[in-house]
TrEMBL record:
<dbReference type="InterPro" id="IPR013216">
    <property type="entry name" value="Methyltransf_11"/>
</dbReference>
<dbReference type="Pfam" id="PF08241">
    <property type="entry name" value="Methyltransf_11"/>
</dbReference>
<dbReference type="InterPro" id="IPR029063">
    <property type="entry name" value="SAM-dependent_MTases_sf"/>
</dbReference>
<keyword id="KW-0808">Transferase</keyword>
<feature type="domain" description="Methyltransferase type 11">
    <location>
        <begin position="30"/>
        <end position="125"/>
    </location>
</feature>
<dbReference type="GO" id="GO:0032259">
    <property type="term" value="P:methylation"/>
</dbReference>
<dbReference type="GO" id="GO:0008757">
    <property type="term" value="F:S-adenosylmethionine-dependent methyltransferase activity"/>
</dbReference>
<protein>
    <submittedName>
        <fullName>Methyltransferase domain-containing protein</fullName>
    </submittedName>
</protein>
<keyword id="KW-0489">Methyltransferase</keyword>
Length: 143
């Protein structure tokens, strides 16, 4: 099964892997812009309880068709700003692998992420800093 890599799209195995997320057993993990669900499907095998949010209904359908859904792995169609505004769930780890943090105003998104992270929780994300940039930037932020 695919490993989560923070630069997984273009340069497999060149970046940190899921070990930077720590022991995921029993942890609530949220992916912002979960796409095909591959990252969360892998993290669920490590014991995480995973929620993926993607703005595209086709991504939820594809993820559920490929990985199914259950208490340890669920997918939601929603803009991440709306999701984070409306949910009352808390998360131990929030990830975005070339996902919604790349496409969303950080001034809007980051305060919402902060509200939903448990104390000591992690925000881990990757994106290119500028269009066409060849090198992925990987970030880990601890609350
Ligand atoms: C480049 S794909 C990466 C998908 C996945 N993270 C991966 O590693 O394969 C970016 C995803 O972010 C989603 N996305 C972009 N902006 C979003 C937003 N504001 N809210 C939710 N999802 C968003 C897109 O629909 C797309 O599926």
């Amino acid at each position: 099964m695919q490993r989560v890599g923070l630069d997984a799209l273009d340069h497999p195995d060149h970046g940190p892997d899921e070990t930077i997320l720590g022991d995921l057993r029993g942890k609530q993990v949220l992916e912002l812009g979960s796409g095909s669900g591959c990252n969360l499907a892998h993290l669920a095998t490590l014991g995480a309880r995973c929620t993926g949010v993607d703005i595209a209904p086709s991504r939820q359908a594809a993820a559920e068709q490929r990985w199914g859904r259950g208490p340890e792995l669920q997918f939601v169609t929603c803009d991440v700003v709306d999701f984070l505004t409306e949910t009352d769930a808390d998360f131990d780890v929030i990830i975005s692998i070339f996902g919604a943090t790349w496409f969303t105003d950080p001034a809007v998104l980051l305060p919402l992420v902060l509200r939903r992270l448990v104390p000591g929780g992690l925000l881990v994300f990757s994106h290119n800093d500028e269009p066409g940039a060849a090198t992925a930037q990987d970030h880990v932020i601890r609350k």
